[in-house]
Amino acid sequence: MTTTIQISDELKEELGSMKLHRKETYEDIIWAILQDIRDLDEQTLREIERARAEIRSGSFYSLEEARKDAGI
After folding, report:
1. Of 57, 3, 54, 62, nearest to 27 (Cα)?
2. Which of 8, 45, 47, 71 is 20 to 30 Å from 39 by CA-CA measure?
3. What's the pTM value of the predicted model, to 2 decimals?
4. 14 found inside a domain
């Protein structure tokens, strides 16, 4: 099923500037943006879990330690 959406001229221009080639559709661009968002979310969740594991294992520097090492 195909549907029509309304977007502002400003958004249309912005989407147009993201085209990698002139035959790329706005749908292609929107799908690429959505994929980037999903990937970022998954990556962010992995990084948060990694940071939690580092904290649990004590493998981190406190702010005070970092300042001391930097001579601040």
Report:
1. 3
2. 8
3. 0.57
4. no
Instruction: For residue 63, give Cα distances in angstroms to 59, 68, 70.
Output: 13, 9, 10
Distance of alpha carbon 71 from alpha carbon 65, whole angstroms: 10
Query: How far apart are alpha carbons 17 and 24 in whole angstroms?
Result: 11
H or E stretch covering 28: helix 26-57
46 in any annotated domain:
yes
Domain assignment of residue 30, yes or no: no
Which residue range(s) make up the domain with 67? 35-72
Domain assignment present for residue 45? The answer is: yes
Residues 19-69 pLDDT 10s: 999 999 999 999 999 998 888 888 898 999 999 999 999 988 889 999 999
